[in-house]
Amino acid sequence: MIAWALRRTIVPILVAGAISALGCSLADAADAADTAATVAERLGHEAQMDDWGYKFLETMTSEIGPRLAGTDAEVRAAKFAEAKLKAAGLDVHLENFPMTVWERGIETATIEKPASQRLVLTALGGSVATPPAGIEAEVIVFRTYSALLAAPLGSLVGKIAVVTERMVRTQDGAGYGAANRIRRAGASEAARRGAVAYLHRSLGTDSHRLAHTGALDYADGILRIPAAALANPDADQLERLAAQGPVTIHLTLTPSERENGQSLTVVGEVKGREKPDEIVLIGAHLDSWDLGTGAIDDGAGDAIVVEVGKLIASLPQHPRRTVRIVLFGAEEMDYSGPAYTKAHIDDAARIIVAGETDFGARPIYEAKLPAGAAASSFGSVFGGLLPPFHVLLSREPSRQGGADVDGLMRAGVPIVSLQQDGLDYFDIHHTADDTFDKIDPAQLAQNLAVWAMFTYLAAESDIDFRRLPSPAP
């Protein structure tokens, strides 16, 4: 009833906006701007009361669960999202693209010497398998990744290389970016020095015996060796034991790959009433890792953007520009951004702004707009809506948007970044603990409100983020 009453209140405001748009006076233009701000503000408050997105997330994580890229579960998730967006009034279609499908198998490790004990670890996405009987070898522990890189070529022949460098906890996730090369490139660097397998301390900020998975990148021309992430306490254990003398591990990993697979991206649109060829794009990735149920990574992002689409589609009058909701497939295995950019490179000039949400469901604390936008009239209106949601409009421009939209950004598309509090995000990220109970509905609603306000304002306005003057230094 409250939501319906809000929509009834919005109707005369939208009518007034349509009438004012027909005139040419500065007063009429000001009225139109005020109307857009009013509608955006009410969308933000409606987002606080509507639990449609929260229920979307609950169903997806409970009834579908993990959504590993290229698997039947990812297809079920795409079909589920397609049906929900259609029911919400959006124009929806699916896009597929080819990929190599990787799936986890058995993953075990035990310390054989100096005393038998089990290790908790998980294979990295894309890792090759060990021989069926596993690998038994002495470990060489490097407390930093730089120490591994400093090891001479040939110095690790027949050994298992282990990097135990700790990831730094930061609010904005910068610690993950700094440590990412340990997981991404470590296996090839270890193989370059003769190692038969590679292990690293999980890229996580927790102290639980849960390993954090994630994709690796094998270098061309280098032998591909099995690779896995250790739970952080187990990395500590190896450090202690290796300081006392030789340590031998038995490692078994049996992942598999399937060529000629495919992934699905879900695209829903609210067509613009005046400028349907101009697009405001917001997205999240539909796939997840297979250890948990992908609630924070990135089910929360999916819930946010699909409900933004639903709220805007339910308005009595669509915004002037088209709002495009994208649920990207196969982000975790690095296919999503390149595949979408390749398929839509001709759209780049028509995409007014793009953004993605892929950092869980903790509150947004800062909004970064394309260069010059914070000081523009658009920035003034948007910034004026943020204080009740405890969000600061930064004067610093957005410089990155995330893996799914990076390709669009390189093609010249302006990017928005709505920065969330990530202090504890990497306690759970890519682990079996990524489950629905970690989602706070009030915090999810705050994200939804800020995204809804920004998306509506950008779609209703005439702003050209590409042509704004950069702020003075």
What does this structure look like?
This protein has 13 helices and 16 strands. It is an alpha/beta fold and 473 residues long. 37% of the residues lie in helices and 22% in strands. The protein has two domains: 308 residues, Zn peptidases (Aminopeptidase, 3-Layer(aba) Sandwich); 150 residues, Glucose Oxidase, domain 1 (3-Layer(bba) Sandwich), CATH 3.50.30.
Present the secondary structure layout:
Elements: H1 2-22, H2 26-49, H3 52-64, H4 72-87, E1 91-103, E2 107-113, E3 117-119, E4 121-123, E5 135-142, H5 145-150, E6 160-163, H6 174-192, E7 197-201, E8 227-230, H7 232-244, E9 248-253, E10 256-270, E11 275-285, H8 295-313, E12 321-328, H9 336-343, E13 351-356, E14 364-368, H10 377-385, E15 392-393, H11 406-410, E16 417-420, H12 425-428, H13 441-460
Parallel strand pairs: 5-6, 6-7, 7-8, 11-12, 11-13, 14-15
Antiparallel strand pairs: 1-10, 2-3, 2-9, 4-8, 5-9, 10-12, 14-16
Helix pairs in contact: 1-2, 2-13, 3-8, 8-13
